[in-house]
Design goal:
The structure is a single chain. With about 450 residues, this protein is mostly beta strands. The chain is built from seven helices and 26 strands. The radius of gyration is 22 Å and the shape is globular. The model has no long low-confidence stretch (mean pLDDT about 90). The structure holds fe (ii) ion.
């Protein structure tokens, strides 16, 4: 905590992508939080170092008083609009005349390439999380996408301040402490089950901090429940970020990334969601289509094995020509062979069958010849679990032991897992260059523990 003139800075300024999804408009949002004492803030940005005051642009700043739990605070947002693509900008945030942030960022690219990091299940307040943050910054990604469980255990405001910001908004890049990431690149945070512990405002108001701390593209639908009064107040404070933000998509370079909410209140086959996926992901002209969500449909871990509802969307993903699905929830790393999956239907053929545990049986078609080095053309979608970004690891005894990956026999499991690393924390680095995509899994010491190439 840093002391300003009259107020305490609880969270220093960090960058968010803002409501910019396609490559037609570019924006960034700076967010910071203080105690409840209002301050006179300014946020300026420029193509040049900020010593050149003549060419500075000033960002529109708004703030809300936040009282999710305990003491009231103030959350500020500065919208940096009208940005050019492929451009380096400098920014500075001041209170009165004192500078509280002075940094730079690069906007999204329109080139046919991109480079980004993916991590999941990380905001646990651990030294491993710090080391992963440090390794990510070494790789110089253009942005970070998360696979959810951004903060443990209940998505609360105080948990973000304890388990997330100190690690990725650290003053220096030190393996034991974390990295200076969120002040220079945007995080696209996907909702995990620990990020919204309830779908009702009546039960836990504080667990909706996600909608305050993030500022993401608003191009998809979703719903919320709770008493009219609470819903109204919440929507007033978070508008327009809620409820649109829990599903979203964006483009960067030649990649289209679709992020989905897989919490219990969501029906993956909701016609509104399916319709949006067809229009959004289906009509994208990007070279690469990647879908990101928290709960994996295909995992050979014992942990969370039965939570397979997202398998129901596989036929749609296949139709929309999705290349890669990135998930978390299971705290390890798993890579599937390219696969096609047809969920089992009832006798009349009008409903998919889901067991009471959430298991979805079906027919697997596995591409067992793809190895990502000599054969790089997959027949089907590659499903990745990348949930080892900082939380306690799951099923470490299954590490690299295919004989232990066999789960339910027959229609529920097939030998779809090609790689399973569960004894170390790691993250995913994805790079595209035209019709070539490379995926590396990098552990907390910086070592590449898995890699594949995909070509089209
Ligand atoms: Fe989870």
């Amino acid at each position: 905590m840093e002391s300003l003139y009259a107020q305490q800075l609880l969270v220093p300024p960090y960058l968010q992508p803002g409501n910019a999804s396609t490559l037609s408009k570019e924006q960034r949002v700076l967010i910071w939080q203080t105690d409840s004492v209002p301050g006179s803030f300014s946020a300026n940005y420029s193509l040049h170092r900020l010593s050149d005051t003549t060419k500075m642009l000033s960002a529109a700043i708004s703030n809300v008083e936040l009282k999710l739990k305990g003491k009231a605070t103030r959350l500020y947002r500065a919208v940096l609009d009208g940005l050019l693509f492929d451009t380096l900008y400098y920014y500075e945030v001041r209170v009165n005349s004192k500078s509280i942030a002075n940094d730079s960022f690069r906007t999204r690219t329109k080139k046919s390439s991109t480079r980004f990091a993916v991590m999941g299940d990380f905001g646990a307040g651990t030294s491993q999380q710090a080391a992963i943050g440090y390794r990510i910054v070494q790789q110089k990604p253009q942005f970070v996408v998360t696979t959810g469980d951004n903060v443990y255990f209940n998505g609360l405001e105080e948990e973000y301040r304890k388990n997330l910001f100190p690690y990725y908004l650290s003053l220096g890049n030190i393996p034991a402490k974390g990295a200076s990431l969120m002040n220079t690149i945007p995080f696209y945070m996907v909702l995990g089950n620990h990020d919204v512990r309830s779908d009702s405002l009546n039960k836990e108001r504080g667990s909706f901090a996600y909608f305050y701390y993030n500022d993401l593209p608003l191009n998809a639908p979703i719903m919320i429940s709770g008493s009219r009064k609470l819903v109204k107040a919440f929507k007033r404070n978070t508008s327009p970020r809620f409820p649109g933000m829990s599903n979203f998509s964006f483009d960067d370079g030649n990649v289209h990334i679709t992020c989905l909410d897989t919490n219990d209140n969501v029906n993956p086959l909701d016609p509104i969601l399916v319709d949006w996926l067809m229009r959004d992901t289906g009509q994208s002209k990007a070279d690469w289509k990647i879908v990101v969500f928290h709960r994996p449909g295909f995992s050979s871990s014992i942990a969370h094995y039965g939570e397979q509802l997202m398998r129901l969307l596989s036929p749609l993903f296949e139709k929309l020509e999705v290349n890669l699905v990135l998930t978390g929830h299971v705290h390890n790393y798993q890579r599937s062979v390219p696969l096609l999956f047809a969920p089992l239907k009832n006798k009349r053929g009008d409903h998919y069958i889901i067991s009471h545990k959430g298991e979805v049986d079906g027919t697997f078609t596995l591409d067992t010849t793809f190895d990502g080095s000599t054969d790089t053309t997959p027949e089907g979608i590659i499903y990745i679990v990348t949930g080892s970004g900082g939380g306690r690891l799951y099923d470490s005894n299954l590490n690299q032991k295919p004989e232990l990956w066999k789960r339910e026999p027959k229609d529920n499991w097939a030998p779809f897992t090609q790689k399973f690393i569960s004894n170390k924390h790691s993250f995913t680095l994805i790079e595209t260059k035209g019709k070539e995509l490379s995926l590396q899994q990098i552990d907390l010491t910086g070592k590449v523990i898995d890699q594949i190439k995909i070509t089209q």
